[in-house]
Amino acid sequence: MKMGVISETVINQDASRLHWITSVPVGMSICLFGILANIISILVWAQIRRQIKQRNTTIIYFIGMGVVDSCLLFMFILKDSLTALSPSFVSTHTYSFLFAYVFFPFFHYLLFCSIWIVVAVTADRYFLLVHDRTPSRKRHILSLVLVGVSGFIINFPHFFNYSPQIEVLNNHTNQVWKPVETEYGMSDSCKRYEFWVHCILLILVPWVLIAAMNTLILRTVHKTSKKVEPLTLSTNLTTSTSNMAISTNTATALKGKEGDRKVVKFWSHVAPRFIYQRKKQTHCQNIRLRTTRTLLTVTFTFLILLLWQCVTQCFWMLEWRKHDLEHPQMWNNVDKSFAVGKLGIIIYSSINCIIYFLSGTMFKRQLFQIFKCRRPRSYT
Questions:
Q1: Which residue in 107, 171, 281, 286 is a FRET match for 188, CA 20 to 30 A apart?
Q2: What ranges make up the beta strands (E) of 23-84?
Q3: How far, in Å, CA of 252 to CA of 247, rounded?
Q4: β-strands 162-169, 174-181 pairing
Q5: What is the structure's pLDDT at 233?
Q6: Which pTM value belongs to this model?
Q7: Measured distance CA(96)–CA(93) in Å, rounded
Q8: What distance in Å separates the CA atoms of residue 210 and residue 352, rounded to the nearest whole number?
Q9: Domain annotation for the chain: domains and CATH numbers
Q10: Tens of pLDDT along 290-302?
Q11: Residue 329, Cβ neighbours under 10 Å: how many?
Q12: More confidently predicted of 313 and 164
């Protein structure tokens, strides 16, 4: 019996040690890097948006994602990393109060916004490419407001999960404050809420929506990319042919009559405009395709990391085999998996800048221009 108790204690210590590693050295490092990377990506996309003359709502969403992800990473440090890093610091009334009513509820609120902004930007690109519809500016603002308001309403119960309470230690000689679960936080209704809202509504539903829309977007991009190449070749051919025709006709007109000179003069004004419009159309389509490829890379990475977190979190929230005294290792494996899986959304929120750099030509060029102080290049 004693051996079983000792073995179970060792198993729990292993899981606790892994939670500490993923929360403090690993989690804090990822969060600090992600906050810096998101600030850089916000500056770069803001600069690109000022230089692009045409409307590009996806860039606005990218900027919004950078702001929300930075706040989410900061909240992870305050809610998770500090708790594991310095127990003496968090054993105060101020921190216990902030944890119960700020850090914990707003972390889940920002998590909701971070995930559903990805859904919003994917839906925006889906309607633009698949259905050739561009929602108005009011609809974009309405969608962002809807994400923010609905996220606050859905996550409102999290304000009642914890409350600051004082705990007496060492025979009433030492008193510490801790955020303790309330009666609601320990109830079955709270567990059902957490499972159905955060495992189904917050993770599974967005995952399915993004996967379906990305599949249709990818098919449309594949078709469009085949059309852009002949259009670019046609534009270059039209440019060279028109220049040759203008040069030939001009030389002939210099030897011919006045009427021929007027025709050549008219053609010399019309042809460049036609070529310019053709080039502009090709350039706009290229920008649209590049932005879409960047978005697809971001969202597919999001799907992989979110699926990883979804599976581990669902088992952990259902407390699968937690009370199985004969096989305590089963719950230990679930607890360890969640310790690593909870980093899924944190990693995603931190690496978007890297994804933009590797998959986006515009982002890479603008990033070099900012840090090398080059003259800004227009994307029109």
A1: 107
A2: none
A3: 9
A4: antiparallel
A5: 43
A6: 0.76
A7: 5
A8: 17
A9: 2-371 (1.20.1070.10)
A10: 667 777 777 778 7
A11: 14
A12: 164
Instruction: Report the C-alpha dihedral over residues 347, 352, 354, 358, rounded to 10 degrees.
Output: 130
Give residues with Cβ within 8 angstroms of 4, minimum separation 6: none
pLDDT in tens, 152-182: 999 999 999 999 988 876 666 677 888 899 9
* pLDDT given for residue 174 in this prediction: 72
With contact defined as beta carbons under 8 Å apart, do 124 and 140 qualify?
yes
Q: What is the pLDDT of residues 33-43, one digit of tens each?
A: 999 999 999 99
Sign of CA dihedral 78, 79, 83, 85: negative
Is 231:281 a contact under the CB 8 Å cutoff? yes
Alpha-carbon gap, residue 74 to 34, rounded angstroms: 9
72 C-beta neighbours (distance < 10 Å), count:
28
Say if residues 164 and 93 touch (Cβ distance below 8 Å): yes
Spatial distance between the Cα atoms of 305 and 287, rounded to a whole number of angstroms:
27
Sequence-ordered strand ranges (E) for 84-225: 162-169, 174-181
Helix (H, G, I), strand (E, B) or coil at 199: helix
**Residue range 193-242, pLDDT digits in tens:** 888 887 777 778 888 888 888 888 888 877 766 655 454 444 444 444 44
Q: Report how far residue 224's alpha carbon sits from residue 218's, in angstroms, rounded to the nearest whole number.
A: 10
Identify which of 246, 87, 282, 224 has the alpha carbon closest to the alpha carbon of residue 167: 87
C-alpha span between 306 and 349 (Å, rounded): 11
Q: In this structure, what token pair is assigned to residue 101?
A: 């009513």
